[in-house]
Specification:
By secondary structure, the chain is of the alpha+beta class. It is built from eleven helices and ten strands. A hairpin with a 2-residue loop joins strand 7 and strand 8. The N terminus is likely disordered.
Length: about 400
């Protein structure tokens, strides 16, 4: 048999035997086919030719040659990848499993950062707190501008919410429009960022867009607030910057977080710090800036409502009472023919309705001006009747 050709079993490309086991040499016929015991017990790497295609046959311990790709697939690795490549291979060669896997959700329907932002802004607790805070701030500023302390109004939580629904809905509409603009920016920028990290010979124009965009986002948390703060020194833009400045803080923080997210999608790049911590701190900044902006908006609205209060356009009020009220404003008239104690013997005219809350009716004289007149508070009672209008 020493003169017969041999076939090496266990060559590279097949499943090797146990470590240290030498490659076996077995007899073969003139056609190069294994004979004898080797033919009866083919090795793990042996395959029969049939129908013009290679067919895997059972080998050592019942394994098949095609089991390795299947095993790699179940383990989450690409077929043929060395499982001993270690963490470096998983991070560099398998970037699609980390950064690349997150990039798969970068579409408008699955962007993780957008889902997080919507979850923060659409939170029921945040929205309810925003409604109550906005209503309270607006009522307090308006009351102070009218010369009334907010505590005497006796407004409830429901009063605050009802008085802030309209402005807060407008604010949320602006936030929603900003979210749509963000989606368009992500649709334009995200593929270019990933391409810039994967390709060396990118176009110069696209490279500059990516570079400048990421550089701006890195400092947006500082650049945007400083810009609007500087513009506030211009008297023409004072009111606009007063409204926009708080929101610039939140938008800047979001842009910085978004820039960090884009960098993490580049092949071979990972965020320098823990992303959960960045999300948490950014959520705090966004919520605070949202309430800060709502406060400034409510302040401007309260002052505007107080300054635009025209007594002539307020509802006319006539007050009837069974007893003399000795009001500081209005004209008192004693009605004739009223003799019973339950009869409304006194009538007061020349009054206007300023506000109505659960505390009562707030009345002013027809010549009243903000901070220059007396505000009368009448609580609901069976001895008093009010007639509005006419």
């Amino acid at each position: 048999m020493s003169g017969e050709p041999t076939v090496e079993i266990g060559s590279r490309g097949t499943l090797p035997g146990p470590p240290g086991e030498p490659l076996a040499s077995v007899p073969a016929d003139d056609q190069g086919r294994a004979t004898g015991r080797a033919a009866a017990y083919p090795s793990a790497g042996a395959a029969h030719e049939g129908d013009g295609a290679a067919r895997a046959v059972p080998g050592r311990d019942g394994q098949q040659a095609g089991a390795a790709p299947e095993r790699d697939r179940r383990a989450g690795m690409a077929p043929g990848r060395d499982p001993l490549a270690g963490e470096e291979g998983l991070l560099a060669g398998g970037e699609g499993s980390l950064a690349g896997g997150e990039a798969e959700g970068d579409g408008p329907a699955g962007h993780p950062l957008l889902r997080w932002a919507v979850g923060v802004l659409a939170n029921v607790t945040v929205l309810t707190g925003l409604l109550v805070y906005f209503g309270w701030q607006r009522s307090e500023v308006q009351a102070l501008e009218l010369g009334i302390d907010d505590s005497v109004l006796g407004m409830t939580t429901t009063d605050y919410v009802l008085r802030s629904v309209g402005p807060v809905l407008a604010l949320l509409l602006v936030v929603a429009i900003g979210g749509l603009a963000w989606l368009q920016l992500d649709h334009f920028l995200a593929p270019r960022v990933r391409a810039a990290g994967a390709a060396e010979g990118q176009a110069a124009g696209a490279g500059r867009v990516v570079t400048y965009s990421l550089r701006f986002m890195s400092w947006a948390w500082l650049v945007l607030p400083l810009t609007f703060w500087a513009l506030s020194f211009l008297q023409v833009l004072l009111e606009i910057t007063f409204l926009v400045f708080p929101f610039s803080i939140g938008v800047g923080a979001l842009l910085t977080l978004y820039g960090t997210h884009l960098r993490s999608t580049m092949p071979g790049r990972r965020p320098r710090t823990s992303m959960p911590l960045r999300y948490a701190f950014t959520a705090i900044i966004v919520c605070v800036s949202l309430f800060y902006g709502a406060q400034n908006h409510a302040t401007v609205l309260g002052v505007s409502l107080a300054e635009n209060t025209e007594v002539d356009k307020l509802v006319t009020v006539r007050v009837y009472s069974t007893q003399r009220l000795n009001l500081a404003a209005g004209k008192e008239t004693t009605l004739p023919g009223s003799t019973g104690k339950d009869d409304y013997r006194y009538r007061y005219t020349g009054l206007r309705l300023l506000l109505h809350t659960s505390k009562g009716y707030f009345l002013v004289a027809e010549d009243w001006r903000p901070r220059e007149g007396t505000v009368i508070i009448l609580q609901e009672s069976s001895t008093i009747r009010l007639e509005l209008g006419g």
